Amino acid sequence: SQTIHQWPATLVQPVGSPLSLECTVEGTSNPNLYWYRQAAGRGLQLLFYSVGIGQISSEVPQNLSASRPQDRQFILSSKKLLLSDSGFYLCAWSLVNSPLHFGNGTRLTVT
Amino acid sequence: QKEVEQNSGPLSVPEGAIASLNCTYSDRGSQSFFWYRQYSGKSPELIMSIYSNGDKEDGRFTAQLNKASQYVSLLIRDSQPSDSATYLCAVREGGKLIFGQGTELSVKP
Q1: Which of A96, B32, B88, B102 is the 20 to 30 A CA-CA neighbour of B5?
Q2: A58: nearest CA in chain B?
Q3: How many CA atoms lie within 13 A of B32 on its CB side?
Q4: How far is the C-alpha of A35 from the C-alpha of A13, rounded, in Å?
Q5: Is B53 on the interface with A (CB under 8 A)?
Q6: Mean pLDDT across the stretch B29-44?
């Protein structure tokens, strides 16, 4: 069966520090991969999605970037965090035209 | 980016009642629709997928789709306190899933 791993579960970072969140999927090949962010009490905002290695679509212009160095690995990065980057970050995978399946999420607090 | 809109919550129902959650979407070309449940502090989990007009039932859950009206709903029969959560409607647009803001449901014992 397919599983998705996302880490760390919680993270507290100062403003201006870098960020790297990693997500890996097991048990499937060539999945679509997604990064969403959820601010407190809000819905899910799509940040990036990828349909293959090196193929990244950015949905929201901001100081975040994403990379997909391997088929089942998706990384979210920032060079300098802002206070507004705080939130619940969710990685997800899907097959074509299938539902998304989410990881457990990373709760990021920028102080 | 097209929009997905849900009833503003919170929605409160007594235990054993039917909870009705609604969602409208703006992209007429959308073909895939999903309902997710999200408990506080947790990630969303898939409840139902629906792709064709009409009703789809799974246990106590029924999803209803009307593409002409661009409307999708979720009914929860015999609501239980454990159903208390935020329910997210999602619509596929090309390779991505667009989510509504969610409706918070509270089931009172």
Answers
A1: A96
A2: B96
A3: 14
A4: 19
A5: no
A6: 94
